[in-house]
User: Fold this.
Amino acid sequence: MRALRLSIHSEEQPDEAPRLHSGEKPYACEHCNFRTSVKSSLTTHLRLHSGEKPYVCEHCDSRFSQKGNLMTHLRLHSGEKPFECAHCNYRTSVKSALTRHLRLHTGEKPFECAHCNYRTSVKSSLTTHLLLHTGEKPYACAHCDSRFSQKGHLMTHLRLHTGEKPYACEHCNFRASVKSTLTTHLRLHTGEKPFECAHCDYRTSNKSDLTRHLRLHTGEKPFECAHCNYRASVKSSLRKHMRVHSGKNPFVQETSASQLPRER
Assistant:
């Protein structure tokens, strides 16, 4: 196969070099509108349609349609990381990964949303962001009707069905299905309260607690009764108020979701 590749390269290179300047692309795909100035590029492209993957890893069952992809894959086995950051000790086996990493240092965000001012350094992040505008939720739960715009959100949701709680506290027997829940829980042990009110001395370990507290200063009451003009700054207050309309005694304590046992 190596001899064939060298033969094609040496045969086509003299004739094809001028096309890089002229823009001529005489090699056309018969299955789509792909065109190229290099015959070997067409050969590689056709494997997308045929599914052919002639380059086989000698260490595992992975197969590839391009030799370059095989060479990159082989670094997973060898541990080789030839691409090194000039600003820190980051090293990687993939050149494109280094390109993305360098944007952390330069602050470059070349991928821009056409609908708002969102910009990002990672193309896949823009793809995910665009789903907010289209409303598309391609990731569907197999157990219920829930759908998600991000695969990671689906994976987190699935733990509600499986009961899996992979995040364990090292100080007690608390376990969580979501990493951020464990992060919040750990502050009970450390005493850390990173969320601080800008108007008073109030501090809390939970961002949602700070959001509720700030309404005391702003007077915001986002929870509105559908039957009258009552508004509340806290959702539990609205639930208590709704008993007035349902005929229930508003002064009888009901178990709310926040009062249920925390996940263990």
In short: Residues 167-218 form a domain with the Double Stranded RNA Binding Domain fold (CATH 3.30.160.60). Confidence is low (pLDDT under 50) at residues 1-12, 255-264. The chain has ten helices and 16 strands. The radius of gyration is 29 Å.
